[in-house]
## 1
Amino acid sequence: MEQKQYEHLLSVRDLHTHFSTENGTVSAVNGVNFNLDAGKVLGIVGESGSGKSVTAYSVMRILSENGWIDQGEILYKGDNIVKWSEKEMQSFRGRCVSIIFQDPMTSLNPVFTIGNQLKEAITLHTAKRGKEAYDRAVELISLVGINEPEKRMRQYPYQLSGGMRQRIMIAMALACEPDILIADEPTTALDVTIQAQILELMQSLQKKMGMAIIMVTHDLGVIAEICDEIIVMYGGRICERGTADEIFYNPHHEYTKGLLRSIPTMNSKKQKLVPISGTPINMLNMPAGCAFCPRCDAAMKICLEEIPEELFINENHKASCWINVRDGKGFETLPETAEKEETAK
Amino acid sequence: MTNLLDVEHLKQYFPIRTGFAKTTPLKAVDDISFSIRHGETLGLVGESGCGKTTVGRSVLRLYEPTDGKVYFEGTEITRSNIKSMRRQMQMVFQDPYSSLNPRMTVEDIIGEPLDVHRMYSNSKERREKILNLMELVGLNAEHATRYAHEFSGGQRQRIGIARALAVNPKFIVCDEPVSALDVSIQAQVINMFEELQDKLGVAYLFIAHDLLVVRHISNRIAVMYLGHMVELADSDELMDHPIHPYTESLLSAVPIPDPETARHKQRIVLEGDVPSPLNMPTGCPFRTRCRYATAKCAEEMPDFTDRGNGHFVACHVK
């Protein structure tokens, strides 16, 4: 393939993903933008219905039949994959971007052996066949820290524990050494001690292979432990993005603030939790303005009417909240970078 | 004053068919003793399959215990007096979607325990009681005629709690009551549990796997592993000074929503998986994954002893 100049490994621009349902069209993702560079861990956090999983599935183009990417670009190494044919996508999936799902119990086929399924992924995406594919599968099983790989090759999914199945899923996803690994709630179905094992494994594999990870989760603890950059989503839009420190210690969106106040932490001995009032958003009936305003205690008139723009808080941090505009925080472009550009010219 | 609930040497085995005409007992709960004081919350944590839900159910006699005794306010709970006892002890289930009958209105769901225990003299009183309960858990009176599917997860859990509270119980077993809820809704329900306890003086056995939630709500916490209780202490004591190696690694495995602490944390990653309860290791159940295990651990089951200030631990080494 010709070498093309590109700015980011993956760049999602103004993504809109819609689903047609019996009750009308639902816009699950409304104008999501983000960039991902090689070797970085991006966390997407939000509650159910926030559009975090749909964003991830859109990048793989594995939406269910009633869903489609309505608008926007997904640039992988500068190429817009939204325009690609299904055939091109098949070589893209697995080789460029891989995904592991939440439930390791249901994402493996119960009637084929582990070896069978691993070899299938390998022969489908690489030139390896027969003995070569077998050796690669064995190598992958030991890579993800499972002992007796030859024995595991002959076993069926039901013979493995949840943690081991998730390891097999990771092995399958890594079969072609993808540039990007998408992990959709990879540890939600697992116990804490197994979750710790899987997170540790993902971190060490990332160091070894240098891939980028998109971590989709609702668990703020998991996000805090492994992510370089965090995107907070609500109602199909990004409310806030920034480095882990910025999001946890300097939140500038009312939803992020509410979320952080509502979870118990190690230090909050007997402090009362401050819940976010109201109920989760109904995607069929989205407010005209900020998606969070029906549950926001600080909502103003403008919040109901207009969607807030994303503004810089500082170079590592952006938030979309009218409160910041009211308080005079946030810039459309960073003053420092604007100055730098001036002087560069 | 006597304890609200005393559990002594509770055992709950389930026969599992392991071959033709051959069964092996699955020791879901093996020799557990603990007590719960009036108006207290005891948190019960452990990994899936450790028997924490079984403890909750055996205490309420939803299962018939294999061995051991359960005392409620000093009276042993037996099969013959279970109906009057159940007026004092209720349960809130994990899944707010499957634990409510989809063909009953909210009014009937909450009213069912009142019907069973004949707790009203006329239909006006019944209705009044139901509306009071709904107000108590933060549901509108206009919701009374609706069906469960019309509510969100958090609201359904409120209906489940109202149903448990209908008979004025002194004790409620809460089996993972917030696990199925969204993060932003969990806090609402946790706060409600706390407010109800302040108002009504009800005691909880709070079963959950989220240690941060359990610490927040519990006065004391018990840790289970493979059907055994390995540690029991005041919640701050247990979190700050865990003794048992399992508790230690469990605590270190909890992802902490704080990047600064996360960076400096030493994760003790346990090797391997939980052994099958059908094929338990000899001696201490945790020894196969324990980094301190000695020869003695393989031979003898450690006693569950008080190490001072009501901090119980079952370990030979620590």
Note: The radius of gyration of chain B is 21 Å.
## 2
Amino acid sequence: MKPTPGQIAQALVELCRELPPDEVGNACDGSLSLLETHGLSHALRTFPRLVRHAALARENAVPVTMTSPTGSLGAAGQTLVSTLERTLARIVEWEETADAGLIGGVVLRSADDRFDASLRSALDQLALSLTQPLPLRP
Amino acid sequence: MTLSQTIVRTLEERIAAHRKDVKRENVGTVVEVGDGIARLSGLSKIGASEMIDFGKGVLGSALNLAEGEVGAIILGDDSKIEAGDTVKATGQILSVPVGEALIGRVVSPLGEAKDGGSAIPRTTLYPVEKIAPRVIERKSVTVPLQTGIMAIDSMIPIGRGQRELIIGDRQTGKTAVVVDTILNQKQTQTTDRPVICIYVAIGQKESKVAKIVDVLRAGGAMDYTIVVSAGASEPAALSYIAPFAGTAMGEYFLDQGKDVLCIYDDLSKHAWAYRQVSLLLRRPPGREAYPGDVFYLHSRLLERACCLDEKHGGGTITSLPIIETQAGDVSAYIPTNVISITDGQIYLESDLFYKGIRPAVNVGLSVSRVGSAAQRKSMKKVAGKLRLDLAQYRELAIFAQFGSDLDQATKKQLDRGARLTELLKQEQYRPMPVGEQVVLLYAGVNGLFDEVPVDQLKGVQHRLLGDMRSKHYDLLETLAGEITPEAEEQLKRLLTSFHGKKS
């Protein structure tokens, strides 16, 4: 049965745990060859992401990106991470990015889920609500 | 309370009710973009045909769902999208605005105005893809859809709720037939069953669409017509969804119990667009490089044409798909697919067109599977003899080429056939009401034009119709429904006296 790209990524992560550091490159080359051998060349682009996810899953870690207007949440960010770790009972691998367009608040992204608590989003929702058709009769 | 006070109060209520909720979205990242398609990573919870928001006002639809990757078509300008951009699933399948506001407008397959007019309101949205009505919800086709083209209304009658394919080589008059059909629906607007027309232009030149809109506007047809246009310079993805969007717009009126005519010009280009999108998405190519589900592409579209029973509103959608053949080859892949789906075909031949027989309908190869079930009684009475006379004429015409001596009966049949063929010629943009068609065909099949030289027949025809319109309009109205014994007597007298005056 043909392996899936996700299975090859998981196998690579398991293998790299056992190999010495100077052999990790060869293991990666082997996994790429395996993808091509099984006609999975189309997955080459997304393979690094699959490996990262497999590695984090192996460590029972959740990757989280926190985006704020300044890119530095400070103590609030630490509190957020602690709350997530407590709730999920997993390690949170987090990084911060900046987007001034958010105006305020924060956007959390983990894998394919995004939680938007920014001021920009709130204003967009308010604008959508206010621009709905109005009653034309008194 | 005045209107302004009501508006202010509504706005205040909306602001007070507004809650700053945290939005949860399913997102992904653009891995590769180009040629109107995009490959995305993430979007693990997306469904098939779900709309994707690329940001910057560009939408797309997910077509390929693979592990770790989603293939999507971009329904807009892909130059604004870059690799690494974040995209989000909207949670909705692709929908278009529908409603009376679309009538008289030229719109894109996404419901955006293309005629420079006001924006189309998005009050009501219908999904582009929808399951066709079930068998139990339908009834048989009985109400005729008059095209105004004598050759079609007499021998290849179309009913409301039918799918009739119009097939032929390039420049054989396929679009002319459908434009005349749309123009002819003007007379239905004052009846209790007006027909709303939707013309879907797929991959056509913008100049051609503009010309068609001008013709429809000049004929007053834009008062009941919607034009959906996916131009040749626009992305193939828009050509792919155009006929489905047009059908969705028609289904809004169907649900109100109204009659709709949907024209797809043409499905050959639609298949090309789908092939392009499928090959770019790396779907395995089949025969002639079309994807394996190209039959399903057209079958699910054309199945949405229906005649609903009274319990479900009694509305109808009539489909007139157009297919362009190459060198008259009706046995090619896409033409045979669509022929097997539709309820008949109107075959237009280049040879007939160049001989001056326009509309260039090959009545021998054309068929309507609904047939006289959707034909008025008066037309049924004259059409049977017409079809027989023309069939005999076609057989005998071969012998006439040898120039041998022919007996009187054969010569008479050939003369009759030549005159009937001349009678069936019709000018473009001149659809004819049923009553007038019946008068002409009655005169033709009963030999009243046998003494008239073929090259003078059109002049005689015009004089006869002018006479009928000015002096015997009530008889035309009667003949539009049924040839009663009294009406037939009156018609015979009038034709005989006209024949006497002429000679």
Note: Helices of chain A lie at 5-18, 24-37, 47-58, 75-88, 119-130.
